[in-house]
Amino acid sequence: MSLIINLAYFVAAVLFIVGLKQMSSPTTARPGIIWAGVGMVLATVVTFAHPEISGGVNYTLIVLGIAIGGALAWWSGKKVQMTDMPQMIALYNGMGGGAAAGIGAIYLLQATPETVTTTGMAIAVIGSVIGSVAFSGSLVAYAKLQGLMKKTLNFPGQQVLNLAIIALVVILGFVMALGDGTIGGGTLLAFFILSLAFGVLMTLPIGGADMPVVISLYNALTGLAVGFKGIVLDNPALMIAGIVVGAAGSLLTQLMAKAMNRPLKNILFSQFGGGSSAAEEEIEGTMKEIQANDAGIMMAYSSKVIIVPGYGMAVAQAQHKIWELTELLQKRGVDVKFAIHPVAGRMPGHMNVLLAEAGVPYDIIYDLDEINDEFKTADVAMVIGANDVVNPVARTNPDSPIYGMPILNADEAHNVICVKRGRGSGFSGIENHLFYAENNRMLYGDGQKVAAELVASVKALG
Amino acid sequence: MIEISGFVALYIFMLAAFTGYEVISKVPVILHTPLMSGSNFVHGIVLVGTMVALGHAQTPLEQAIGFIAVILAAGNAAGGYVVTERMLEMFKSSKDDKGDKA
């Protein structure tokens, strides 16, 4: 039996890696997740025969737990809106971190002087800290993105408090790891509460714009925690899957942070936009408005239009109307392309998902590197619901907080139309110099309404 | 079960880390979100660990912790699968399914 279980774990580990590999291309991505799913089911089913599982009550609890957790998550995952995907991932990820912490808690509770080794205890302790931090941190990230928690919390001495907490966690961890395995209930409780508190406090001051990077980081941390638990439990499937995700997640986190031009340490240990007001420079020019009807006609008589969608478009649920507009323009022979900034949406690739949902084929969707030189030849660049990612300040003003961030060169198009709900500045609170440019026109209104008006105006031309 | 001791664990750790790094490094930006979700699903394998942990729980406290852990882990696995699958399904159904733009 043991042979079958080990073999199944081995196959599952292979399937996970193959699945992740296949997810690296749009054509094989879907089989990829299905193969990984097969691996998961296989590993779960054979575990029921695991020799270390005993007791009828425990079996019942396992089945019940899988049924409850699985059903709730399945149901919530089916009905979540595509725009809410990032926080949903954060939530599921937090659950995984909590589960890893739970394994750690049981291991530490059961430790006796006869069974423990210092290495085993140390790994269990480290895994528990990481799992707990990923758990509570992910929940805070979820609450923030879901709008349950609006404010970022900053108070004097925050860094000192965080440091003090992590120092206490480390001390308690050392006490447990170096001890003989008999751990006082109070010590264990304090250890977990402080770990959880650290996750909360670390995430609270981080603004919404940086949240995707943070979620990705917690995803990597959960992977790492799971990997450590695999070592504790002598379970190679957990080890391999956990560490692969830990490494992959770390790389993904770095890629995201780089795309946003926000070094990871700035995201974690400082607040966004600090000191930006001092560097505010005079803006030349004025904002000029345009009506939807004129904008529609302008696009209809162009030969090349590039659309720059941002999260604002998705919030307004305008992507379907935008695709309708695109189809109309294409029928008139206009070359329409979509330009996606790496951080458009709430996560890299999120905007692609949203456009795919609306039916936009991905061969007219381009990355920043692919399309940036084409803006020069575009008659119209339409920016809808995006702001900071087209702000030329990132190229010109070294004092700006977003200086150095790669931007889409929408300002190089012959005409720019910026669709915007109101006159305020963007997510980061930085003034957008593009809005004041000579070739730019502002089109105010709700994204979906504006898109519908544009469709109507192009249709009216026949 | 097989015994994984000391340096063997370290070697597995090292090789798995490189594997994860390699697998991700070739992923186009358009798949980053589904991939993050996919890797989120993969660490749902923690379910297997929670099952074993609950399986040898002895006291009511251990059982309670194990039970919650199993619920959380099952949620991680099931939820992670559903949302990833939903996202990737849309990529497939986009009518111009060339797949070479990456």
In short:
Chain A is of the alpha/beta class and 462 residues long.
Structure description:
The complex is a heterodimer of chains A (462) and B (102). Chain A folds into two domains: 83-274, no CATH class; 292-460, Rossmann fold. Helices cover 58% and strands 7% of the residues of chain A. Chain A has 17 helices and six strands. Chain A has helices at residues 2-22, 29-47, 56-79, 85-110, 118-145, 158-178, 185-203, 211-232, 236-259, 264-269, 292-300, 311-315, 319-331, 350-358, 368-371, 393-396, 447-460; strands spanning 304-309, 335-340, 365-367, 380-384, 415-420, 440-444. The longest helix of chain B is centred in the last third of the chain and has 34 residues, at 60-93. Chains A and B meet through helix 1, helix 2, helix 3, helix 4 and helix 8 of A and helix 1, helix 2, helix 3 and helix 4 of B.
In the predicted model, the low-confidence regions of chain B spanning at least 5 consecutive residues are: 93-102
Helical proportion of chain A? Answer: 55-70%
* Total DSSP E strands of chain B: 0
Mean pLDDT across the residues of chain B is 84
Q: What is the 3D form of chain B?
A: flat
Q: Could you give the distance between the termini of chain B?
A: 42 Å
Strand portion of chain B, in percent?
A: under 5%
Largest interface by Cβ-Cβ < 8 Å = A-B, 126 and 92 residues
Main pleated sheet of chain A: 6 strands, parallel
Largest sheet geometry of chain B: none
Order of helices and strands of chain B: HHHH
What is the total number of structural domains of chain A?
2
Sequence stretches where pLDDT stays below 50 over 5 or more residues of chain A: 272-280
Beta content of chain A comes to 5-15%
Strand order of the main beta sheet of chain A, please? 3-2-1-4-5-6
> What integer value in Å does the Rg of chain A equal?
26 Å
Number of helices of chain A: 17
Encode the helix/strand succession of chain A as letters. Answer: HHHHHHHHHHHEHHEHEHEHEEH
Distance between the termini of chain A: 72 Å
> Strand pairing plus helix content of chain A: what structural class?
alpha/beta
